[in-house]
Write a structure and sequence with these properties.
heterodimer; A: about 450 residues; mainly alpha; 2 strands; elongated; B: about 325 residues; alpha/beta; Rossmann fold; Alpha-Beta Plaits; 2 domains; six-stranded mixed sheet; four-stranded antiparallel sheet; 11 helices; about 35% helix
Chain lengths: ~450, ~325
Amino acid sequence: MLKFLRLMKNEFIKLSLKLSTWIMIIIVLALCIGYSVLCYAIPRYNAGYYTVNSASGYKSEIEYLEDVKPDDWKEQVENYQFLLDNQIYDGWRYGAAQEMFSLKTDNADKETAEKIGLIRKAIENNDWKMYYQYRIDENKAIYTDEEEREVQNWGYKYCLDNNIEPIAGEWKTEVIDELAQAKISAYQAENSPIPLKGDAEREYSTLKDRIKVNEYRLENNIEYIVEDDGLSALLTGDFTFNIWIMLSMGVQLVSTIGLIVIIIAGGIVASEFSAGTIKFLLINPVTRGKILVSKYAVVISISFILLLLMYIIFGFMGGILSGFKDIGASNLSVRNGKVVEVSGFLFMAKTYLLASINMIVMATLAFTISSLMRSSAVAIGVSMFAMMGGSLIDTILSQALKVDWGRYLIFSNIDIVNISQGNSLYEGQTLGFAIAVIVVHMVIFLLTAWDGFVRREV
Amino acid sequence: MATSILQIENLNKYFGKRQILHDISFETYAGEVFGFLGPNGAGKTTTIKIAVGLLSLDEGDIKINGISIKKDFEGAIAHVGGIVENPELYKHMSGMQNLKQYARMRNGIDQKRIDEVVELVGLKNRINDRVGKYSLGMRQRLGVAQALLHHPKLLILDEPTNGLDPAGIKGLRDILKNLAHEENISVLVSSHLMSEMELMCDRVGIITNGKLIGVKTVEELISSVAGDMLTYKIKVDNSEKAIALMDNVSDENKKIIDETHIEIIVGKEMVDEIVSGIAYKLVTNGVRLSMLCPSENRKLEDAFMEITKNGGGQIA
């Protein structure tokens, strides 16, 4: 064991004395720092909340209506004037006003007039409790089924019971709104005559999980949850910058470490052959198997060291640039019907590890070709192509050529994260299947490397 | 009898269907320099590569210090130091960093031992330079240092004098002789440079076409070929006149090399009589005799050519 560690130390020293190793590492680290600054600097909608309505918008609408005079222009002008006068742009009052307008259009009977009066009063007095109580009373008539009525009333009742004033843009209000919607959707799915199967079933279980998570957030007063949503944040610009969004965006750069690791893996055996140093390496009292395993162990260690370094850089940059906002946040997920709280650092570490699977597999491929062909150029070339072009090959096989055997290829199984979410290009590709395919490939790669290095003549 | 260090027993090796080595068996002993001689392609390097584990062996066995490399590779190789083919070490590292690499792969080598070996091969002043800047001679020395680090009982050097200048060859020869005779190491040296081996080795094994033809001491080898005959070189002012005067040497044993040089072969027991007779005759007949001496540098070369000519000069 001690000797094995000494062998690994040898490999590390050989690599560390090569200038090219350091140049590659410095380029990637500089890239990480530059990328962090870029992610911080890209334009974004702050706080993730905005509304399209504004006073000037209402005014121009009124001008337009008075100018063009469509059929019901007088009524519409009156409505806009109401919104303008009461400064209603969003939130429960906006919804209530819309309801009031819809009631108004008919030639109102007495009952309706009462309702309109009540809503108007609630809006004008900014009395949300009055409006919510009115909604609950209304639902009594609409939903005869008691269970359904409970589901429909949940949002209103929750606010009333806990005395939570609905304010647009406030996280709690948003969570309650989303939860209320989700509960209604879940109820409808449960009572649908169409049986839950395939995508619908998956959607339903996702919905149930979201309900559990959001309930947990309300119970424990958790405003921010850590999620792996960096890519969509990057694309939409809809995010608040903090350490977690930075780490999540950083995952996109894990493949650049892959390049370094593939170059190292492709050269670590082949270079000994091309330089002729293999003879001096092998006439030592160490079996070839130990030498090969020590070299592979070094490749894997370097992968994880660089991954850790990248994680630290993005965490540090994200923390510094956001003033360590939301640093104590956690990720919430549902496991066995229970909400599990995982610290953000742990959750992101898991995300980075999952993202590194591709690089580890491709580095192993490079290592195998390196010890089989004894040519680093071929090893690096093939593996880089496989890493970069893998998803393209996957798409062509599954979408363009529609061949089913494509599912057995490593490329269609490497994206563990997507497969676990059910986003595989092949029907019925499960996580277990993907892991099995990856393991089989790794075993084949390593056995081939072993054969190429241990049993071949030098 | 000295202790046997390397035992090669009935070694057979095939590359595909072609048999490269035929039943090679020999032993080397502690305290001797063993020369492994053969023309290019005879199987020297193959044998050595098998002995150090670079190639597998198909049949037979190799024991180092009594340990079979088949059964306990690490145990057997722990007693071997060697250079196979060229001394190709890590060029991007210094000599010292290279030695530390090899030290880590073997047990019980401290910095003191590394310094000792560096001193021994005479690289003390350049040991911290990058190996990429070394001359071939210096790399060869570093290779030897690397091979000696762990006090091996057997030192195997494949064509160590290749590419070295005469001073380098002499330096290496002195190191190897010293190691064998003073430190009781068994040294195995392969080469196709016969004259070099003659000065360096105690015993020689000759291999040709993958077959070991014989293992003999240098003296045995020379006399086995040349028998009782000695070759003399003579330099005179007129070869024609001089050769006519040598009536005590038969025609097939004397020949004109050029206008001023003659070569003669004489029987060992008659050598004093014949040589002094020739000298007397030449001088008294007015021939200017400027050199009359036994030919040294052809001895082993001839023996070697004699033994290996069975191959017909074709590469096996």
